[in-house]
UniProtKB/TrEMBL annotation, chains A, B:
Main location: cytoplasm
Example of a GO cellular component annotation carried by this entry: cytoplasm
Alphabetized UniProt keyword annotations: Cytoplasm, DNA-binding, Transcription, Transcription regulation
HTH merR-type domain segment(s): 1-69
Protein name listed in UniProt: MerR family gold-responsive transcriptional activator of gol and ges genes
Lineage of origin: Bacteria, Pseudomonadati, Pseudomonadota, Alphaproteobacteria, Sphingomonadales
SMART domains: HTH_MERR
CDD domains: HTH_CueR (cd01108)
Length: 151, 151
DNA sequence: TGTGGGGCTTGCCATCATGGGAAGGTCAAG
DNA sequence: CTTGACCTTCCCATGATGGCAAGCCCCACA
């Protein structure tokens, strides 16, 4: 199986397959006499695992751990669960950070006329945080931030 | 004012101040005879604007636009609002993607014993999506995904 | 058997924002 | 005058991915 076929079958681009090989995430592929890489169905199986883990946002280093556990038939599921839970924590942290940004911006957008005039609370807040937004808007902002944390 | 003082006063690291200069985001700083960069309070004001915009997740290219509008006293607030709204859209898309990852992972984690035994629905799902999770768990997954979209 | 088009190889560059470090010049306090 | 902290430039690294270029390989069709 050529690298292109393996790419199509696994959903991992040929470029990334080579990259994963150089970084040691996957073993070096067999070569045919032509120099072409040759992939088995088992290799594709591996690549699909990687693809799926990437889709869940795992970093390559974490996938390396997961692959190790996958291959280890005497693994403890607790180890897998720990990795997954840590990743969920990181996702949650990033989500919270972005929700805070979004919430701030939505408040500012709600205060901006969005017309031909130059007055703009968005720019005013960038210039001096908190001054441009009226107190009631700030209250809404705080409430929304709390709601986001609950959601 | 030295670059280090400007960094402390603005919250932008000296490294990043130099970087912003090379990329044209800020004008080239004045130099003293020694070659040291020299910053005015107005420069620090600029840098704080940039810092705040970065904190809201704007990319440097977007900040360039925002700075242009900030300086343009005949700007239309609609232009600022458009940029901010586009950024909110992008934040929302990224948040949704990560919430989906998190939701999937939380479902799998909820199905994993997390003990000494090797059986692990997390690995099983990475190996073959959807097979390891019982139908009721998949239903919970869908509901949670919908709830996330509402949140 | 020749040929053309598509696939493969390696290698280098770019992204985006940020940090690290080295080699060497400057400043200010003691 | 020395010393330590600060500044300068330049280069390198990150992480995952794509793009491009020069050159080789393979297969199908004429």
């Amino acid at each position: 199986m050529n690298i292109g076929e393996a790419a199509k079958a696994s959903g991992v681009s040929a470029k990334m397959i080579r990259y994963y090989e150089t970084t040691g995430l996957i073993p070096k592929a067999e070569r045919r006499t032509s120099g072409y890489r040759d992939y088995s169905p088992a290799d594709v199986h591996n690549l699909r695992f990687i693809r799926r883990a990437r889709d869940m946002g795992f970093a390559v280093a974490e996938i390396q751990e997961l692959l190790g556990l996958w291959r280890d038939r005497s693994r403890h599921s607790a180890d897998v669960k720990r990795i997954a839970a840590a990743h969920v924590e990181e996702l949650s942290a990033r989500i919270a950070a972005m929700e805070e940004m979004r919430s701030t911006l939505q408040t500012l957008i709600g205060c901006c006329a969005g017309d031909d005039r130059p007055d703009c609370p968005i720019l005013a807040d960038l210039e001096e945080p908190g001054v441009a937004v009226r107190p009631d808007a700030q209250a809404r902002l705080r409430e929304r931030a709390i709601a986001n944390r609950r959601g």
